[in-house]
Amino acid sequence: MRALVIDDSKVMRRIVAGILEDLGYEVRQAGHGREGLDVLDGGWVPELVCVDWNMPVMDGLQFVSAVRANPAWRQVTIMMVTSESEHGQIVRALAAGAHEYVIKPFTADAIRDKLALLGLLPEEVAR
């Protein structure tokens, strides 16, 4: 399974990517939403995208909207991984097309649990 991690923090990208790699994902990374779209435009379409909200160039909400506007990417599951914790922000992200929402700081188990809810744990991990 493939995952794309989009966050302007290199450290946060490494943390999320490490969790996903430990679960068996092949992971690519991007520093903002526009870079993430470039990855998708290049033909590497993952099952999962973990995207931060607050980033330069293109934020996470703009990224979600752009992905949902492209029929070729409708099957991509998007999980916001962000420090934005206000209820209104969560509602906006889900309304824009995100499937799940994880608030920073988080644990590896929190990510794993969200992936289990989404049916996105690789089979060998889910057992």
Tell me the layout of helices and strands.
Layout lengths: L1 E5 L3 H13 L3 E5 L2 H9 L6 E4 L8 H9 L8 E6 L4 H10 L3 E4 L4 H11 L4 H4 L1
Protein name: Response regulator
InterPro entries: Bact_response_regulator, CheY-like_superfamily, Sig_transdc_resp-reg_receiver
Pfam families: Response_reg (PF00072)
Give the C-alpha Rg.
13 Å
Give the % helix. Answer: 40-55%
- Mean pLDDT across all amino acids: 93
Shape: globular
What fraction of the residues are assigned to beta strands by DSSP? 15-25%
For the record, give the distance between the C-alpha atoms at the N and C termini, rounded to a whole number. Answer: 16 Å
How would you describe this protein?
This protein is an alpha/beta fold and 127 residues long. The chain has helices at 10-22, 33-41, 60-68, 87-96, 108-118, 123-126; strands at 2-6, 26-30, 48-51, 77-82, 100-103. Strand 3, helix 3 (60-68) and strand 4 (77-82) form a beta-alpha-beta unit. Helix 2 runs parallel beside helix 3 (60-68). The chain is globular. The two termini are 16 Å apart.
